[in-house]
């Protein structure tokens, strides 16, 4: 082993990011920054995601390595495509630490941005199409033994020709089915609080694909409510909100829930009835839709519906059938992103993987909401 | 983990034992290899090689570095798959870069670090540095936290990024042969009669061959399925075990597992393995000398 002089290292294996010119910043999170950019020569529009390497004590971030590995593995029309990986030159300006950029195909909108804009209206057929594509994408990644672990509307992208894509695999990881007597021990500090399933909140570390299905359920309801259906401040608060919607968490409805680490230490309201359909019926008029949401938001991850079962649900096979999103999206020439939508900026401060601290209740912000974006929680 | 702790890990008796065992496997393979390759044409070619030609210096160097990497992996208690992954990364790097331009011991240590991330068997950078340093400097005091330690750490972090870039951000380009080996052996278990299976350590030997194969860059030139089959074939030859009715079967057992493998290819892989074991015996005494040479390298930087 020897120590190297920094200057000698030249990297012939990776192109420079300067071949793209940045146009505008379109995202910001714990993962880093995302830019819309244009190729200098071909004029092709792409999205650049910078890999944060500030905390380089343990070298190249394992999360970035996972994201790259997973994206190189996954090729599907409903999963965002990684085009290449670029670098910046190491110079005195960045303390001889060049940055790495992931170059993605560009998508015009994200679902959070679309839903926060009251001018964007989805018909039932269009909602079905979006959800079908979402579940198709999830089915594909789960088939490839990958957990997304950060399902939320801001991570669902839409191209202007109506293609929905799962994005941000910064928290994703490969999983294996646990062997008998050898439970998996994955971190439960994943998924944005509002989309986090009850088993994670109760400290489960041996979780399955069902955690992404819960997120899909939250997103599905949000297609009608237009804002996240359960906006908890803390894990405890989130669990209380879940209980109010899905009924009390007891070993009767969820076998072996009392074995979970935090089952005793967290306060779980008793005697609550499950009222998913009841509370959503003023938003969601379609009976099949209500039934599917109810199944996606199943408390017990073992009996929660799978992506495969969900895709076979009558919701997708009864009139109106799923119809293309192209016509609706063609009316909106302006890109819509959560990051660029002013009223939802505050949510960005909410760390995706960090359970605490939560965002303060945004009373000022919620009062500015349009009629159809009124907070779901407030209605009750 | 304090310095004392890691020091103990590095030379703990138990681990040392495991380490010896892995080499014992190799020893067995070596002594029995003549019986295997006896009359075949490859063997006479091999004899020529042993006496006349000399093994290229580069190949020898990589062999030595992999030996050091394997030792480090065992002392770090990493899985076989992780150390195989580390060796693959190492060989891939040097299939693209010239050995004289880089310090292979640093590349080796960094390859281990990268492999622990790729294979999700995370290991602290500090432990890797301590263990590697200890192997390279067996007669010196354990590495203290100080300038040298931080310089080494800095180098590893830079080198890691460099490795990732050199490998096109794809540190695991293909499957490892291990899972194929396990599956194939599992299928063979129900074919071979139980007594033989229980008395002959066929699996251990095949696993040992596979692990040792990483001393050369076979993994880059061989499909993982082929490597797994060759290791099984080789160990069955060593113990004179046969798959029942294979000689009258329409499709030989290896073709059942992997359609596109030919017996010639299996023999070629085995012959490379034998060459590798010969290389080991040929310059075993020089390993100690190599240690003192690298020592000069480290302190000068």
Strands of chain B, count? 0
CATH class of the largest domain in chain A: Mainly Alpha
Q: Which overall shape of chain B is indicated by the principal axes computed on the Cα atoms?
A: elongated
Q: Give the CATH class of the largest domain in chain B.
A: Mainly Alpha
State mean pLDDT of chain B (0 to 100 scale). 79
Give the rounded overall mean pLDDT of chain A. Answer: 84
Assembly type: heterodimer
The appropriate CATH architecture of the largest domain in chain A is: Orthogonal Bundle
**Unreliable residue stretches of chain A:** 4-10, 344-380
CATH superfamily caption of the largest domain in chain B: Cyclin-like
Weakly predicted, low-confidence segments of chain B = 1-53, 285-301
Largest sheet: number of strands, sense, barrel closure of chain A: 6 strands, mixed
Rg result of chain A:
21 Å
Residue share in helices of chain A? 25-40%
What is the strand tally of chain A?
11
CATH superfamily placement of the largest domain in chain A: Transferase(Phosphotransferase) domain 1
Structural class of chain B: mainly alpha
Q: Percent of residues of chain B in beta strands?
A: under 5%
Q: How many distinct helices of chain A?
A: 12
Structural class of chain A: alpha+beta
What is the fold's blueprint, element by element?
The complex is a heterodimer of chains A (380) and B (301).
Chain A: E1 15-16, E2 20-29, E3 32-39, E4 45-51, H1 62-73, E5 82-87, E6 100-105, E7 109-110, H2 111-115, H3 124-143, E8 146-147, E9 156-158, E10 164-166, E11 173-174, H4 198-201, H5 210-225, H6 235-246, H7 276-280, H8 287-296, H9 307-311, H10 326-330, H11 363-367, H12 376-379
Parallel strand pairs in A: 1-5
Antiparallel strand pairs in A: 2-3, 3-4, 4-6, 5-6, 7-9, 8-11, 9-10
Chain B: H1 3-11, H2 13-37, H3 41-51, H4 57-75, H5 80-96, H6 104-118, H7 125-136, H8 147-166, H9 178-189, H10 194-199, H11 202-213, H12 218-221, H13 224-238, H14 253-257, H15 263-282, H16 286-300
Helix pairs in contact in B: 1-7, 2-11, 2-13, 2-15, 3-15, 4-5, 4-6, 4-7, 5-6, 6-8, 9-13, 11-13, 13-15
């Amino acid at each position: 082993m020897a120590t190297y002089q920094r200057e000698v290292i030249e990297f012939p294996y990776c192109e420079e990011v300067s071949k793209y010119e940045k146009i505008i910043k379109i995202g910001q999170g714990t993962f880093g920054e995302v830019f819309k950019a244009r190729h200098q020569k071909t004029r092709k529009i792409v999205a650049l995601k910078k890999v944060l390497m500030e905390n380089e004590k343990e070298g190249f971030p394992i999360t970035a390595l996972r994201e790259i590995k997973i994206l190189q593995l996954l090729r599907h029309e409903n999963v965002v495509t990684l085009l290449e990986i670029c670098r910046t030159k190491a110079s005195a300006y960045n303390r001889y630490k060049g940055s790495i950029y992931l170059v993605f195909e560009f998508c015009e909108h994200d679902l959070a941005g679309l839903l926060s804009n009251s001018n964007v209206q989805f018909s039932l057929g269009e909602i079905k199409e979006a959800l079908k594509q979402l579940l198709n994408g999830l089915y594909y990644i789960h088939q490839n033994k990958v957990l997304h672990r950060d399902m939320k509307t801001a991570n669902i992208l839409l191209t202007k020709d109506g293609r929905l894509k799962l994005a941000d695999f910064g928290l994703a990881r490969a999983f294996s089915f646990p062997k008998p007597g050898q439970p998996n021990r994955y971190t439960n500090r994943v998924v944005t609080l509002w989309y986090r399933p009850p088993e994670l909140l109760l400290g489960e570390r041996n979780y399955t694909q069902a955690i992404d299905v819960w997120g899909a359920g939250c997103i599905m309801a949000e297609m009608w409510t237009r804002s996240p259906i359960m906006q908890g401040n803390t894990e405890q608060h989130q669990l209380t909100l879940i209980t109010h919607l899905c009924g009390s968490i007891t070993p009767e409805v969820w076998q072996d829930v009392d074995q979970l680490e935090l089952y005793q230490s967290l306060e779980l309201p008793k005697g609550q009835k499950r009222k998913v359909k009841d509370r959503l019926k003023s938003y969601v008029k379609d009976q099949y839709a209500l039934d599917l949401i109810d199944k996606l938001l199943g408390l017990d991850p073992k009996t929660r519906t799978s992506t495969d079962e969900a895709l076979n649900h009558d919701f997708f096979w009864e009139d109106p059938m799923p119809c293309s999103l192209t016509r609706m999206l063609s009316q909106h020439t302006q890109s819509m992103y959560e990051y660029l939508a002013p009223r939802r900026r505050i949510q960005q401060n909410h760390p995706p993987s960090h359970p605490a601290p939560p965002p303060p209740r945004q009373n000022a912000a919620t009062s500015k909401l349009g009629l159809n974006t009124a907070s779901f929680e407030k209605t009750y | 983990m304090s310095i004392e702790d890691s020091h103990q890990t590095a030379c703990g008796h138990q681990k040392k034992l495991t380490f010896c065992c892995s080499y014992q496997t190799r020893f067995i393979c070596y002594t029995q290899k003549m019986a295997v390759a006896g009359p075949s044409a490859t063997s006479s070619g091999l004899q020529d090689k042993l006496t006349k030609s000399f093994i290229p210096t580069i190949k020898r160097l990589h062999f030595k570095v992999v030996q050091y990497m394997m030792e480090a992996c065992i002392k770090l208690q990493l899985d076989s798959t992780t150390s195989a992954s580390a060796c693959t990364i190492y060989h891939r790097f040097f299939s693209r870069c010239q050995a004289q331009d880089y310090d292979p011991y640093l590349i080796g240590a960094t390859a281990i670090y990268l492999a622990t991330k790729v294979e999700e068997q995370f290991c602290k950078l500090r432990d890797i540095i301590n263990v590697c340093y200890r192997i390279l400097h067996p007669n010196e005091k354990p590495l203290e936290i100080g300038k040298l330690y931080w310089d080494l750490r800095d180098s590893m972090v830079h080198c890691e990024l460099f490795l990732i870039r050199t490998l096109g951000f794809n540190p695991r380009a293909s499957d490892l042969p291990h899972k194929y080996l396990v599956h194939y052996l599992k299928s063979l278990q129900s074919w071979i009669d139980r007594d033989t299976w229980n008395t002959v350590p066929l699996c251990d030997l095949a696993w040992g061959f596979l692990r040792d194969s990483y001393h050369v860059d076979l993994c880059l030139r061989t499909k993982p399925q082929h490597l797994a089959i060759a290791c099984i074939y080789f160990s069955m030859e060593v113990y004179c075990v046969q798959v029942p009715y294979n000689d009258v079967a329409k499709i030989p057992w290896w073709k059942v597992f992997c359609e596109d493998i030919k017996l010639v290819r299996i023999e070629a892989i085995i012959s490379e393995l034998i060459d590798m074991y010969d290389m080991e015996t040929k310059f075993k005494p020089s390993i100690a000398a190599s240690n003192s040479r690298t020592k000069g390298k480290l302190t000068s930087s």
